[in-house]
Amino acid sequence: MELWFSEPHTPDIKLSIRVDRQLLSMESDFQRIDIFESPELGRILVLDGYVMLTEKDEFIYHEMIVHVPMAVHPNVKRVLVIGAGDGGAVRELTKYPEVEHIDLVEIDEQVIKACMEYLPRTACKLTDPRVFIHYEDGLKYVRSKENEYDLIIVDSTDPFGPGEGLFTREFYGNCYKALKEDGIMVNQHESPFYEADATACMRAHKRIVESFPISRVYQAHIPTYPSGHWLFGFASKRYHPIHDLDVYRWTERGLETRYYTPRLHQGAFCLPAYVEKLLRMVEVRD
Ligand code: AG3
User: Fold this and answer.
1) Which residues have any ligand 1 atom within 6 Å of their CB?
2) What is the pLDDT of residues 4-45, one digit of tens each?
3) For the chain, which domains are there?
4) Which residues are catalytic?
5) Where are the beta strands (DSSP E) in the chain?
6) What are the angstrom distances between the C-alpha of 162 and each of 110, 123, 157, 177?
7) Whose CA is nearest to atom 10 of ligand 1?
C-alpha cells in the first residue's frame, strides 16, 4: 500500500509526496498540525494542509530569511521572530555571537511542542539561553513595542488562517515602530507564480512599500513550496540590502551555510522581468 500526502497549489495543480508514516496528527486551538516521515524529503511539517517545511529543503528558506539581513546590518543584538515555531530561523540566528536576545512569538504552543519532539534538526536551538518564547498573537505582541529591535523576522504561514494578521498594514506599521532607527524587517513574501499567490504577494508588497522607506524583494528556489519559486521582503529604515552588504565582514565570520553566500545575496535581488513588473504595479504611491 502506498501513502501519499498532497497539497493543492492551485485548484488544478497539486504536489504529492509519498510518505512512510504519519508521526503526528492533531487539532490545536488554532489549526491542524501534521508531521509525516517521507523517503525523499525526510520529515515534513504541515499546518492546515500546507507544507511549512521539509527536512530536505528547509535550509534554503531559513538561511535566506536570516543571513540576508544579518549580512547587511552591522550590529544585530535584539531580534524579534514572529511565527516560526519550528525553530529554523532561530537556529540560524544563534550562529551569530553578537545576537544577545531573541524574542520568538508563536501563537500556537502545540507547534513548538510538536517540532521539539519530531523535528529536532530545526528546533535544536529553541532552548538556547538567548531565546525567549512568547505564546501570543504576533499582531498583538508587536503593538506595544517601540524602538526595541534591530531585526524583525516575519516567518508566517500563508495569508489566511492564523497568519492573516501578519500581512496587514497595521502589522507592518507596528513593526516599523518596534524597530530601532536603523532596523530591518524581513518577511516571507509568498510566490509570484500562481495567480492567487501573486495577488497575496502584491498586496503584501504594497503595504510594506507604504510602511518603510526602503523595500526590496529577493528570491530563492524552494522546491516544496508552490511553484518552487519563493520571495522574501527586505524592508528597512536605513540600510540598503545591496549597497550596505558587507561581504568581507560576513565572510570573516566563517559561518557554514549550504545555500547562502554573499555572492548569491546580490543575485537574489535580481528578479525576473515579470516579477519586477508585478511589484512595480503596486510601488506607485497614490
Ligand atoms: N512559512 C510558510 C511558508 C508558506 C508555505 N506555503 C505553502 N506551502 N502553501 C514556513 C515556516 C518555516 N519556518
Assistant:
1) 50-53, 61, 84, 86, 88, 155, 157-158, 188, 225-226
2) 999 999 999 999 999 999 999 999 999 999 999 999 999 999
3) 3-53 (2.30.140.10), 58-280 (3.40.50.150)
4) 155
5) 3-10, 13-19, 21-27, 32-38, 42-47, 50-54, 78-83, 101-105, 131-134, 149-155, 179-188, 214-221, 229-236
6) 13, 21, 8, 23
7) 52
